[in-house]
Every structure is written in C-alpha cells, then in structure tokens.
Amino acid sequence: MSEQKMVHLIIERQDTHNGKSYTEEFKVPLRPGMNVIAALMEIQRNPVNAKGEKVAPVSWESNCLEEICGACMMVINGKPRQACTALIEKLEQPIRLKPARTFPVLRDLVVDRSRMFEALKRVKAWVPIDGTYDLGPGPRMAERDRQWAYELSKCFTCGACVEACPNVNEKTSFIGPFAISQARLFNTHPTGSMHSHERIEALMGEGGIHECGNSQNCVQVCPKNIPLTTSIAAMNAATNRYALTNWLRK
C-alpha cells in the first residue's frame, strides 16, 4: 500500500490584531484537486500542528470558492493571490501562507480591507441615481466601449494589487491602483460621467494618482487580468487635462 502524501504548510499566524506574529507548521493529507482553502479546512477539522500539538484553528476568510468574491486573498509563496484557485499540486512545498500585511491583520490570515472601501468612496465608484422614481432605461454604450469597460468592472476588491504595490503602506495614503481604475470605469459611463470632475479632483488630492510610482506590480498580480496600468495612464492624462483646462480658465 502506497504511503499517504502530505501537504506541508508554514503559516504566519497572529492571535490578535495587535499581537506578535509567529509561524506554525502543519501537515495535512493531500487529495487530488486540493486547493489552499481545502488544506486550511483540513487544519480546521483537525487543528494539530506538525509537532502533534493541539492548537487553535487557523483563521482565514473565504466565500465563493470560485474567484469571484476576493475574500480569500493572501500571500502564497510570496505572491498575493486567491487561495481558492491556488492548487496544491502546482505549488512548491513547503507552502508558505502569510496575511496581506498592507492591511491591518485581525487574526492569522484575516485582514481588515477597510482602506480599500474608503478609497472607493473617495472616488465615488458608483453611478449616482436618485432611486425614488423610475428613470427608465439608461443611455446605451457603444459595443466597443462596453467591451473594455466590462474588463474594468471585473474588479472584486480582493486587494492583491494593493498588497503588491510598493507605494501602499502605513506611511502613505495612496488610494491604490484598483480605485484609479474604478474612477476610469465610472467616468466613462454615460451617466457616471456627469460626476467625472469629482472623481478627477479626488485623484488630484492627497494620496491620489501622483503617488503612483509606476512599478507595474499591480497588473502582474491581478487575478482578473484587469489592465490597471492602462487605467492609471488614462486617468493621469485626464487629471493633467483637467488641471490645464482649469488653469487656462483663470
């Protein structure tokens, strides 16, 4: 009878939001088609570390398990990515799991991504409508515009681009690549464009587009292959035009 293959995980843990981090090793049975979430669920079912000690189950977040919600983003073998699509058999072992430390760590692999949602509010990443009465069908978009806008709409706020960006850290207020791309998306929407000046002014403020260092790490790690650097370039041009137009009007 062949010996059961095992998955070796080295997980960076933290018991409280202000606690000290430490690493703990686990070994769980390998199953065909297993992903990182399945390995974490195995630890949750039987929380015993590689030394045979009973420990607290590892905390993490997940929801859809099909790369739609973005909740399970963590750093896997040094790269921010979704744990649900990280297949064990395609990862080098030992598999090292760490929380995305661009964000405050709440416990183990669970982080607080409020920073991202605050950034979306700053750039008004929505189409404002009153909602108290039927506005009827909205304006149509040309198919060519709809196709590339749809690519931008795939963002699910996972935070991988923010984790990979060297300009996002506790010392800066940079809103991040995702927010710039969402500003572009809603500025080109027929209805959303009515508030384009507010989004551009937000990008020109503190922590705005001028703090982008153009490292292009974001586009390398985006799980949806969103053209983030293209959006950054487009919005950089838009802010320059806006600033120049305002200057000429004086």
Structure description:
The protein has 250 residues and is an alpha+beta fold. The chain folds into two domains: 6-111, Roll (Ubiquitin-like (UB roll)); 114-249, Alpha-helical ferredoxin (Fumarate Reductase Iron-sulfur Protein, Chain B, domain 2). It has eight helices and seven strands. The protein has helices at residues 36-45, 114-122, 143-152, 160-164, 177-187, 196-204, 217-221, 228-249, and strands at 6-13, 22-29, 73-76, 79-82, 95-98, 105-107, 110-111. It has a five-stranded mixed sheet. β3 (73-76) and β4 (79-82) form a beta hairpin. It is elongated.
Which strand-content bin applies to the residues?
A: 5-15%
Helix % is 25-40%
Overall tally of structural domains = 2
Largest sheet: 5 strands, mixed
EC number: 1.3.5.1
Cofactor: [2Fe-2S] cluster; [3Fe-4S] cluster; [4Fe-4S] cluster
Protein name: succinate dehydrogenase
InterPro entries: 2Fe-2S_ferredoxin-like_sf (IPR036010), 4Fe4S_Fe-S-bd (IPR017896), 4Fe4S_Fe_S_CS (IPR017900), Beta-grasp_dom_sf (IPR012675), Helical_ferredxn (IPR009051), SDH/FRD_Iron-Sulfur (IPR050573), Succ_DH/fum_Rdtase_Fe-S (IPR004489), Succ_DH/fum_Rdtase_N (IPR025192)
In brief:
Helices cover 32% and strands 13% of the residues. It is built from eight helices and seven strands, in the order ββαβββββααααααα.
